[in-house]
Amino acid sequence: MSDRILALVRHGQSEWNQKNLFTGWRDPDLTEKGIAEAIHAGKILAGAGYQFDVAFTSVLRRAQHTLTLMLAELRQEDLPTIADQALNERDYGDLSGLNKDDARKKWGEEQVHIWRRSFDIAPPGGESLKMTAERVLPYFEATIRPRLLTGERVLVAAHGNSLRALIMSLEAMGPDAIVKRELATGVPIIYTLDESGKPLTRTDYDDATPRVTELA
Ligand SMILES: O=C(O)[C@H](O)COP(=O)(O)O
Question: Residues 6 or more apart from 158 whose CB is under 8 A from it?
Fold first, then answer.
C-alpha cells in the first residue's frame, strides 16, 4: 500500500436529503440511515486496514458527524481534525430549504437541472460548481496537498459538490465529465498518490468488491 493516501467520503444521508430539500450551507444533521452509512464507511476503512494522520471536514454538522462516526470505527477518535468552511457544500442560495420537486414545478425540470448540474451556472444567490471549486481547490493546494506530500494519510469528510471539485482536479476531468459524476452518501473513495502528489489509483467501495482504477 502506498504511503500517500487520500480518502474522500461524502457525508451520510442528512435529514434534508431525506426530505428532498436543497441544503447547501444549511445545517441539518444525519438521519438514522445517514448514521448507519457513516458507520459502514468507517467499517470499510477499518476493514481495509486504513489509518490516518489527519482529517479534514467542513463546518457543517452532517460532515462532522460522519467523520466522528468513522473515526470511532477506526479507533482514531483523537485524530487531529481541521474543519474549514472552504470544504462546505456549494451554497444553494435562494433554493436552500426548498423542496427539489416543488422547485421543478415552479421553474421547470430543465432549469432546475441546470442549477444542479451545470458547471458554471449558479442558482440565484448561490454558487455554481465552478465557484465552489474556486474556494475548494486553493484550500486543497495550500492546506491538504502539503500534508500529502510529506507522506501523511488524509481523510476528508465533506459534501457532494465540494468533493466533486476535488475529484475534478485530482483526475484532471473536464466540466462535462464531472457534472455527471454522482457521489453516493457514505461511500469511501480512496486515492493513492505518488511522491509528487499525482494520483496513481482510485478505489471505489460502492460494490461488494472494491474496484481499483489505475489513474497514472
Ligand atoms: O445541498 C444539497 O441539497 C445536496 O446535498 C446536494 O445537492 P445536489 O444533489 O443538487 O448536488
Answer: 8, 9, 10, 11, 56, 57, 58, 63, 87, 88, 89, 166
Rounded Cα–Cα distance for residues 30 and 191 (Å): 26
Active site residue 11: yes
Atom of ligand 1 nearest to the CA of 89: 1
Is 194 marked as binding a ligand? no
Does 128 appear as a known binding residue?
Answer: no
| ipTM field | 0.94
Write down the pTM of the prediction. Answer: 0.96
* 175 CA to centre of ligand 1 in angstroms: 17
The dihedral through the CA atoms of 180, 112, 133, 96 has a sign that is negative
Domains parsed from the chain with CATH numbers: 5-214 (3.40.50.1240)
Cβ 73 under 6 angstroms from ligand 1: no
pLDDT of residue 208: 81
182 is catalytic: no
Catalytic residue among 40, 89, 127, 159: 89
**Distance between CA atoms of residues 195 and 16, nearest Å:** 40
Å from CA of 139 to ligand 1 middle: 21
Query: What does R_g of the chain's alpha carbons equal in angstroms?
Result: 17
Give the tens place of pLDDT for each residue, 150-182: 999 999 999 999 999 999 999 999 999 999 999
